[in-house]
Amino acid sequence: YFALNTSRGFFKDPKARQAVAYAVNRPAITRLAGLNAGTPNEQILPPGIPGFRNAPVYPLDRPNVEKAKALLGGRTAKVVMYTTNDPLGINTGQMLQANLKAIGIDVQVKPLTFAVLIDKSGTRGEPVDITSIGWFADYPDPYDFINILLDGRTIAAKNNVNVSYFDNPTYQKRMDSAAKLAGDARYRAYGTLDIDITRNQSPLVITNNQNVREFISSKIGCPTYSFAWGGLNLVMLCPKR
């Protein structure tokens, strides 16, 4: 996803953030990672996480440049983007640069090593507008996406994972309410919250959910994929007999 810095400059405005969400070419960005790299998605919660409800908010097949321009109302901007300095990160930066140029936003891409990107984007007040980054579930619950990534009360001087610096008391109250629920009521609340934040706030412009491509020997049996951890469950592996 692209975390848009809601605490500074152009992306303080939700309409500017929504314009980016309409302008990105999700299939093209997904293909940059290779064959079967993932599935385009625009919602914060990934399929497979309890509470996910498929709601077509932004286009998954192609950008909607006209809608994005309409939201900007003729405004233009120059913004700074941090991405990783590996081939995928650099190509992703160039793709977003082209996507946003079409709607009048000039993106200065700064490729960084992953460790430096994490340090800089996690520092409050860092002069960055867009961070290209991702997130794996620590546990299979929507709290790990909505509350962990978007609760402004957790923002500190450094080491932030809320690198959109989204800090909205109205949504924080709803996060608190959802977190106190259990079962179906919990997942309905988080599903609604996911769609609402995606549609009306867009602090995170999601591009895709990545596939995990793993290969095992023909001598290995019992392969089990863990949806919670996003990979092969090594503990479950056994010799093939």
Tell me what you see in this structure.
By secondary structure, the chain is α+β, with helices and mostly antiparallel strands. The protein is built from eight helices and eleven strands. The chain has a five-stranded mixed sheet with strand order 4-3-5-1-6. Strands 2-7 form a two-stranded antiparallel ribbon. A two-stranded antiparallel sheet has the order 8-11. α1 (14-23) packs antiparallel against α3 (65-72), α6 (143-150) packs antiparallel against α7 (169-179) and α7 (169-179) packs antiparallel against α8 (183-200). It is globular, with a radius of gyration of 18 Å.
Short structural summary:
Helix content is 35%, strand content 16%. It has helices at 14-23, 26-31, 65-72, 87-101, 114-121, 143-150, 169-179, 183-200, and strands at residues 2-4, 38-40, 77-84, 105-112, 130-132, 204-205, 208-210, 220-221, 225-226, 231-232, 238-239.
SSE topology string? EHHEHEHEHEHHHEEEEEE
Helix fraction, binned, reads 25-40%
Unreliable spans are none
* SS field, number of helical segments: 8
What's the total count of β strands? 11
Spatial gap, N to C terminus: 42 Å
Which radius of gyration do the C-alpha atoms yield? 18 Å
The fraction of residues in strands falls at: 15-25%
User: What is the molecular shape?
Assistant: globular
Biggest β-sheet, characterized? 5 strands, mixed
Average pLDDT, all residues: 95
Give the strand order, joined by hyphens, for the main sheet. 4-3-5-1-6
Q: Please identify the structural class as seen in this structure.
A: alpha+beta
